[in-house]
Write a structure and sequence with these properties.
single chain; about 130 residues; mainly alpha; 4 helices; 2 strands; rod-shaped
Length: about 130
């Protein structure tokens, strides 16, 4: 049975060699991108902590003294929601689908840092109990 050949640049390869190289490259790629269970757990814990903190902020804001009775303390939900939907939620989605776990961990860390910064600013604005 005649073997077909393919020219790549100035080199000529048989189809079976190219197929073998393709299979090897695919196996190497899959091995290098296999998600680490430790990385997934770390990214999931960061995203989970962000979700729990975001939910806690609603509880805390609901228990802030009314002050002048206008309800302006609920405006604090806007920057906290921004941090959640821009950083924490994408990290959570990436963890759940098991893709780009390094990015999920980075987003989770940045999200927690942003929550801490915004929350400290908001606490200084809330009336004291």
């Amino acid at each position: 049975m005649p073997t077909s050949h393919t020219a790549i640049g100035s080199a000529v390869f048989s189809e079976s060699v190219l197929e073998h190289i393709g299979v090897r490259m695919r196996q190497a790629f899959m091995a290098s991108t296999a998600p680490s269970p430790h990385l997934r757990a770390f990214a999931a814990s960061l995203a989970g902590a962000g979700v729990l903190f975001w939910l806690y902020t609603f509880y805390h804001i609901a228990h802030v003294p009314q002050g002048d009775g206008t309800g302006f303390q609920w405006l604090a939900v806007i920057p906290l929601g921004g941090v959640f939907f821009i950083l924490t939620f994408p990290a959570l989605v990436l963890v759940l689908i098991g893709r780009l776990l390094q990015l999920a961990a980075i987003l989770g860390l940045i999200g927690l840092a942003a929550f801490a910064y915004v929350w400290m600013q908001l606490l200084s604005e809330f009336p004291k109990h």
